[in-house]
User: Fold these one by one.
Assistant:
Number 1:
Amino acid sequence: MTVDNVTELTSLETEFSWNALNSDVDRSLLPVTVILGFYLLVGVIGNFLVVFIYVFRWEAPKTDHFFVPILAVLDMSACLVSAGVGIYANMNIVKFRSDVLCKTVAFLGIFFVKMSGDLLSIIAFDRYLKINKPFDDQMSFRWKKISVVIMSITGLLMAIPSLFTYGTIPLQHPGTGDRGCLCANSNTPHHNHISLEWSLKVCYQFVMLVDVLARFVGLVICYFHIGKQLYKHSKTRIQRRLQQGQNTLTRPSCVNEQDEEPRQERDSLVTNGNITRETTPLPLVRLSRQSSKFDCQRVRLTLIFMLITVIYIITMGPKLVIMIADAVQERFWTIEPTPKLGIMRFLYTLFILNNVVNPFIYGFFDRRFRRELYRLFTSCRN
């Protein structure tokens, strides 16, 4: 957690103490600290279960589910860094004395948040190829691994400047001489003149803003076309079933995965108590059902990633707005224990919620994930 563009205190009492101010701010930010604690606990446990199930309990297809455990690892790391340091910073907002810790958490926070966002962009492109261009060349397993390497390099390049722009800023009260320390990326020009250091900090913040905005635009465009294709596909299937005289209200569009295997073994129909053979050859029936099941899994996984992306944009939006306001408005942040500080801190850290909810999305949409999770808990209880 960092506080940018720190303002001077509006009241400078003679008996002022940074310790007293730190205690007051700590109490005013207690609700935000509790929320961050919830993010930390639930996010780490939930994403660990996703990694454990997808990697060790479920031999999922490497091509379709390749990004799921990687995204979970990034989400878990982001929860540890962003939420964990946020709690520490709320409790030591003007007593953050370690310059090394300040630079390290700034670097790791930017690194994991950027990698998580870039991975969502890669996933969106992969989903676009699978849904909108199914007969064109797809991302192979090799290219997916290469994309993760490139994503890691770009994340490092974006995070490295934070080691030079972030750091502890000494604070001294002019009346008492009492000293405090703040972890910040201050972009306020000192002594009313623009220095090279200040210009570099502003440019770095501007690059981060453009990066987030470009990612937003790309994700929206990509999933807009995917949504259109899924809608057209669903509409075509309904029309085809109506033409074939099938009941679309009682027959699901996707076969239940738990009942798929027994149904594949049925090669006969019962009519008026008599067993009659199906006219369609059994291998073709099985191939058709397997293809339908594969299509349903592909659509379901696309919907999962689409919902994850929507939540990412919604939760990252307030942080983006605050970053823009901080860039254009001098002395945007204050370190006084006011309701505004608590509201701003809550909105500024709301993006961590995106790293927390993903396991719940998997559990809601993915039957196999729920089944494996139930088996895991049952085996642990026994």
Number 2:
Amino acid sequence: MSQIDIAEAKTKLQELLEIALNGEEVVITKDSHPVVKLVPVPDKPRRGFGCMKDLIWVADDFDEPLTEEFKEYME
């Protein structure tokens, strides 16, 4: 993990971004206290059609009328 003061970070932003993109954390400090950590944003796989197959299902009686026990919720 690299640490660099904010004043120096202003002049070396491109270099610091490259370091972070290569997997190393870069901590920017102000008055010797850490204030910001540069890390790459992880790639998330895009969800495609059918990605929830077998995880979501609809009950066979989904569109049947509700029973009497739910009558008070429908008023």
Number 3:
Amino acid sequence: MSEELTYESAYNELQEIAAEIENESVSVDLLAQKVKRAAILIEFCQQKLRATETEVSNIIRQMEKI
């Protein structure tokens, strides 16, 4: 994968995977692969959200000191 993963692209891919699974358009042969990819994307999004929350909290603390 040459492109850098962003929160938005990961979230969009997760939505696509969920829709495929909900619509039962994923073959049984690919289901485990899709679920595994979804788990990777979920972990990425969670890490990104935690990092953003920490960064925003730090900025707010710095602003309160001013």
